[in-house]
Write a structure and sequence with these properties.
Elements: E1 5-18, E2 21-34, E3 38-42, H1 49-57, E4 64-73, E5 76-77, H2 83-89, E6 94-97, H3 111-120, H4 127-140, H5 146-149, H6 159-171, E7 177-181, H7 189-206, E8 209-214, H8 217-223, E9 226-231, E10 234-240, H9 241-246, H10 251-258, H11 298-302, E11 308-309, E12 315-316, H12 321-326
Parallel strand pairs: 3-8, 3-9, 6-7, 7-8
Antiparallel strand pairs: 1-2, 1-4, 4-5, 9-10, 10-12, 11-12
Length: 328
């Protein structure tokens, strides 16, 4: 593994156990995250973004089966670690922020207790020392009255405050990789901007790499270094953020961008992508986007395209991407 690669995932597959057998939610996903970069992962709900991250973290439900040729993190092969070794890794070298903090923060315990427990799980220090670290990290994420907040319960705090606390909890043990799963979706625009700025600042200070999962292309354009687009459990396109927004190759990427409001334009017609993401029980035979794609030909409906890597490093899963880009 290259010295600047922090996480390398090869052929990740995740299945749900059902009465009708296994249903595949993640299909042959291969990617890497470099040290100190922010990888944006985008796509509609149901495209496999969150289950990919949960599979890497080892946080899938009991009815999930996760298989991979390799999930290598800091030269450790995660697929061979014991449950205890995975637990030690989570919250330490790898941490995660979830979309809704109330599902992650225990309403029965104070913020201070939960932060201190997260610290003491990975460090052999006293509770008073853990309390000092908790105050310091709360101040780092921009929370005033940090000493007082330690004695508060999650339900008494605002959504933006809870999300800052979740970021503090994720960063308190100085992880190398932070996975943020739609961390700003439930917040108003002003608080969302503050949280995004906070994540950027903390990345610079701590050197943490971030996997940022979202359906919001505006957020990705603002903070990502590289973007990975997922559809129906597969990667369909990946490129540098500037290249992707300047020249989207995959019809699905183009569709997502066309359905996004451009603030600088006074008059615009928002496009829509017809149809919906296919059900796990009814995946198309060929290209999974073909039933919704304006460029689809007969070959697209019968042949599954491979994920092709281009000389500039972009990856694209489309049989007709050359025709699309040449024809605008």
């Amino acid at each position: 593994m290259s010295s600047d690669v922090l996480l390398k995932v090869k052929n990740l597959n995740t299945y749900f156990k059902t009465e009708n057998g296994l249903l595949q939610a993640v299909d042959q996903v291969t990617f890497q995250v470099r040290k100190g970069e922010l990888l944006g992962i985008v796509g509609e709900s149901g495209c496999g973004k969150s289950i990919t991250s949960l599979s890497i973290m080892g946080l899938t439900a009991k009815n999930c089966v996760v298989e991979a040729d390799s999930i290598a993190f800091e030269n450790k092969e995660l697929t061979t670690l014991s449950d205890k070794e995975r637990r030690d890794l989570r919250g330490g070298d790898m941490a995660m922020i979830f979309q809704e903090p109330l599902t992650s923060l225990n309403p029965l315990f104070t913020i201070g207790y939960q932060l201190e427990e997260a610290i003491r799980c990975h460090n052999k220090i006293s509770r008073s020392q853990a309390s000092e670290l908790a105050v310091a990290i709360l101040e780092k994420v921009g929370i005033a009255r940090a000493h007082e907040i330690l004695h508060e319960y999650p339900n008494s705090l605002s959504g933006g405050m809870r999300q800052r606390i979740m970021i503090a909890m994720a960063l308190v043990n100085d992880p190398s990789l932070l996975i943020a799963d739609e961390p700003t979706t439930a917040l108003d625009v002003t608080i969302q901007a503050q949280i995004l700025q906070l994540i950027r600042n903390l990345m610079r200070e701590f050197g943490t790499a971030v996997m940022f999962i979202t359906h919001d292309l505006g957020v990705v354009a603002e903070i990502a270094d590289r973007v990975m687009v997922m559809y129906a459990g597969q990667i369909v396109e990946e490129a540098d953020v500037y290249d992707l927004f300047a020249h989207p190759y995959h019809p699905y990427t183009s569709g997502l961008m066309g359905s996004t409001i451009q603030v600088q334009q006074e008059k615009q017609v928002l496009q829509t992508i017809p149809g919906t993401v296919p059900s796990l029980t009814k995946m198309p035979k060929g290209c999974r986007f073909a039933p919704r794609c304006p460029y689809a030909a007969e070959a697209c409906r019968v042949t599954m395209p491979e994920l092709e890597e281009l000389p500039d490093g972009r990856r694209i899963r489309c049989l007709r991407w050359k025709e699309k880009t040449h024809n605008g």
